[in-house]
Amino acid sequence: MPELPEVEAARALIERAALQREIAVVDDGDTYVCRPHAPGELADALTGRTLTAANRIGKSMWVETDEGEGPTLGLHLGMAGRIIIDGAHAGDPLSAAESREAEEAGGHPDPRLSGDPAWARFTVEFADGGRLVLFDKRRLGRAVLNPDLTHLGPDAAEISAADFRARVGRGDAPLKARIMDQSVLAGVGNLLADEALWRAEISPVRPAGELDDDELNRLRRAIRATTRDAIRLGGVHTGTLIEHRRRDGHCPRCGAPLVRAQVGGRTTWWCPEEQR
DNA sequence: CCATATGTTAAAAG
DNA sequence: ACTTTTAACATATG
Question: Domain end: A96, A119, A145, which one?
Fold first, then answer.
């Protein structure tokens, strides 16, 4: 279930494997994933064109066609989306069952990794026979033409310290809700938020406007470090707090029992001793 | 059957 | 008018 690091991996995969290939066939028949488009609209707009650049802000991707001459293809992985290109995949991590099957397949791509038809929500087939699939069990991902990205704040991995302080350090909402608001800051999801707040040793329930400059700087650094590590290690689920929370329910640093509660509408874990 | 799920967003509430 | 919270979305998994 992808956050900024997983989406960046998907963007990089598209950049590496899907550019400069002519589009021959497009399946945009899932009217929920492709809403508000009618079936055939993406196909009509994209067929015959070539993908020429893959971009990202936060969790939103957009792919240029024909060097910017054609329409833009917007892609969002939602809660469970994965990009699959000729058997290579990025985005939603493999489930335990999928990993097992992939291993048993012995190096050959599991058919599901090539895009089980039941979960292939949007498909671009290239003239050379290969394909790009938006694979998404939950159908909360999106594929749209010319996506509107104006409501997104600056990317969480790129934002400057001054901009971060000005945008995050205000309002009465809980800090965690503030950093997960994609119009404030783009890319932080539920797990990245918990991991970064734990690293910065700041409570998720503090009103955002209450933080001082030092705390805001610490939080920005923690978000950047967590993002970098997650990209390197393969996903936000590799985070230290994330791996420990359900295992023993204790803080990996000090051993105190972790607190679990709803904050900003999502399940949140934190160390009540260290995170103030 | 029940609870949970890493995202977004319209609607309701304040 | 603006900010914050809640509920709904579609579906899978333990």
Answer: A145
